[in-house]
Every structure is written in structure tokens, then in C-alpha cells.
Design a protein that fits this description.
Elements: E1 2-6, E2 30-33, H1 35-40, E3 48-52, E4 57-64, E5 72-76, H2 91-94, E6 118-119, E7 121-123
Parallel strand pairs: 1-5, 2-4
Antiparallel strand pairs: 1-6, 3-4, 3-7
Length: 134
Amino acid sequence: MYLTNGKEGAYFSSGYRHIEGMKKYSAEAICELNPHTASRYGLKEGEMIWIESRKGRIQQRLKISEHVHPNVILAAFGWWDTEAEDNEYDWRKYNINILSEGDGANCPATGSVQLCGIPVRVYSEEQSWGNPPH
């Protein structure tokens, strides 16, 4: 499976997530999977799932969506926890930057790292790359 990402229209990159009025648009990181893919992996609408690459892993809440290709997960871009106690806002728990190698070809327009086409796996329970789900 391959990761791609999308930005919510209410936010500017990773900004404005701390504004209470903006949370009505999207209060947390939502990823989307095709219903057949979700079923194959035993994943259910609304649960927190792990998205893992060889570099790291994050969690996002699952939304089932017909418009996503069966071999793709559409992950939310730029998330961090506005309620977190630490001064880094737990960004390592939700942000897709954790999944990228950060090397190789960068986007020529922005200089940003590659955040699509990353091989990933998805699961709902505690696992690691070396222990694939059934």
C-alpha cells in the first residue's frame, strides 16, 4: 500500500489547528481508506489506526471512502495535538513527516520532502514492520 496526503481546506499547512472555531471543520487527523482495503485489514470506520513506513509510524482516525484507490491510504497533512502538554504538541504521533525518509528528490517548487508514494502498512493493533497482520 502507498501513502498519499491531502490538506484540509480550513487550515493553512499545519497552522490554525489551535483555534477553537476552526476545529468544527476537522478536530483531528483523519485518514481515508477504500472500504475493500479496510475490510481486508479488519479496520473499522472511526477507529484510530497505525500508519507505518520503514522510517516510523503515526496514528490517525480512519474514515472509509469509496473514492480512494484500494492500494492507497490518503493521510491527513500537517497534524499535531493542540491539547498536548509538551512544547512539541505531540506532532510525532500524528504527522506524516515521520513516515518520509526525508532524503532523495525533493519537490522542485517547495523544496519539501516526498510525502506521497511512500510504501506503508496499516493496522489497528500494536505491531511493528517485522510482524505483519494476518
